[in-house]
Amino acid sequence: MPPDVSPLAPVRLPLEQRAEAEALFTSIGEGAISTDEFGRITRINPVAQSILGYKESELLGEWFPKKIVAVTADDIVVNLIDRPISKAFLTGRSISEKIFYRRKDGQKIPVAVSVSPILVDNKPLGAIEVFRDITLQEEVDRMKSEFISLASHQLRTPLSAIKTYSHMLVDGYMGKLTTTQKQSLRTIIGAADRMNELVSTLLNITRIESGTIAITPKQLHVDKIAEEVLKELSLPATDKNITLSLHCRDKSRAALKTDTLILKEILTNLVSNAIKYTPKGGTVTITVRPRAKDVLVHVNDTGWGIPKYAQDQVFSKFFRAPNIVKRETTGTGLGLYLVKGLVDALDGNIWFKSDEATGTNFYFTIPRTKQTSRRTRGQPLVASQQPETRPEDYS
Amino acid sequence: MPASPQTSLYDQLVRVTHVYLGPAADRFIARQVQNHLHKPPDQLSKEDLRQLIDWIRVAVSLLTEDSEIVEEYAAQLEQLAGGEHKSKRSK
């Protein structure tokens, strides 16, 4: 026999308030499910029934994590400890996330979920999860990404021609040029390079957003990659008299298996940003710190910093700090959005500390191993875990 | 096996939890302590643990459907906290 199906029963609200709460629960335009303290479904509203394809009677009293299966975009079942409802109880806070639920007919549907613990006297009595079907929104995003991808590819071809012929002209393959003509061509090449970088950034973002970014892990030394990046960016640094340096504690332990190109892209973006947003005569320093489960990379600059009020938007698409826009007109605001996506793709974490007086410190971690999970009865409930790399652990 | 008197309460808690959650035990308990009590894990006291048990119980209830396991685990936590276990399992 299923338990008491009313989520509000333990709270013992007055009848009127209870009726009001239940009417609200039933009539809201998003799917809503409540569970008791054992994770059993105590109530499900009509929108949730429609999204999930179940009748109320099929869900009441059922164990929520088993009945409503959450999967990733790749159709892999989400580890129970990583489900929004579990996170809500692990943190004691409301959690909002995008995941996929499997309907009764097996169809996978993207949903935006928000889940909050039900508390009475600060004791958890269950949870309420509200979710909406975002299939249409996802489709629009996918079409937008496809358009960017197509447009980017189409832009690359004429850019290659512009660069090739400009270089041939500068190098004198088509006759001798005057100094003014050469300078003009160098401006064209510089602009084409910037356009090429923008196209690459857009393509990478499209790959990340569509989940098609390919990761090819190879054994590498993080300090060596950092050295290469600093070497490649030495020219713009020299132009601004900025000192670049690299520190690595225990180089022998800076080796790990990850994607070389992605790591390089992350570092290139962070260091070029640091150079761009640091005044003349400043310093940019990379510190590589090997640790037991990961390698921590710290990029420090003595630049203009990010204003406190704008810091929560740093990893947003098209974000440019207001204090920077005044000084540096070029830039798309896509670099850090891309970096965040790339670090996520490598299962790392990224965070930063910035002060307008002293500059900015970006930190990111690259895990040494990517573990898989397995769960069978009689075994531990959670067989493995993602590397513990939360920002507060290093602050 | 009784814990040695030198072992901290946090370590004992992780050891008990490890039986149920495996390698995730440390992270699971550390997050509970940090998020709910806002203190470093090594400063966990028996009083703190008593406050945490309800949260831990609910969180574990979302990792296993078997309420017997949850109760067995909760009983061990109550024991560590120096209290008496009161089953919440529905009849």
Task: Describe this structure as you would to a colleague.
The complex is a heterodimer of chains A (395) and B (91). Chain A is an alpha+beta fold and 395 residues long. In chain A, 39% of the residues lie in helices and 23% in strands. Chain A folds into three domains: 9-133, Beta-Lactamase; 138-210; 217-393, 2-Layer Sandwich (Heat Shock Protein 90). Chain A has helices at residues 15-27, 46-52, 56-59, 64-67, 84-91, 135-170, 179-210, 222-232, 234-239, 260-276, 322-327, 335-345; strands at 31-36, 41-44, 70-71, 95-102, 108-120, 123-133, 217-221, 243-248, 255-259, 283-290, 294-301, 349-355, 359-367. In chain A, the strands form three sheets. A six-stranded antiparallel sheet of chain A has the order 2-1-6-5-4-3, sandwiched between helices. Chain B is built from four helices and no strands. Chain B has one domain. The longest helix of chain B has 16 residues, at 46-61. The radius of gyration of chain B is 12 Å and the shape is globular. Chain A binds chain B through residues 3, 37-39, 63-66, 80-81, 83, 85-86, 89-93, 117, 123-124, 126, 379-385, 388, 392, and chain B through 18-24, 26-28, 30-32, 34-36, 54-55, 57-65, 67, 70, 88-90.
